[in-house]
Amino acid sequence: MSKKITEQELTKIQEQQKVLNNLLNQTGVLEAQKHGILHEFARVQKEVEDNKKDLEEKYGSVSINLEDGTYTVVEADGK
Hints:
By secondary structure, this protein is mainly alpha-helical. It has one domain (7-73). Helix content is 67%, strand content 8%. Strands 1-2 form a two-stranded antiparallel sheet.
């Protein structure tokens, strides 16, 4: 003859397990989203670096005002 816990105890354990499984599932979804966002971030960061190189080739070493597009030449150290 097998022994059993009470229905109330079983229900409590089952509900707790459902909550844990749901939280684990949500964590997986968030990690997948994080992974995608980090890839997108790296892609955009590379685009920014490529654009900086293009601008530097065209204008030289400059500091660009992001508000109005004006720029000033950046002097190299020691000059």
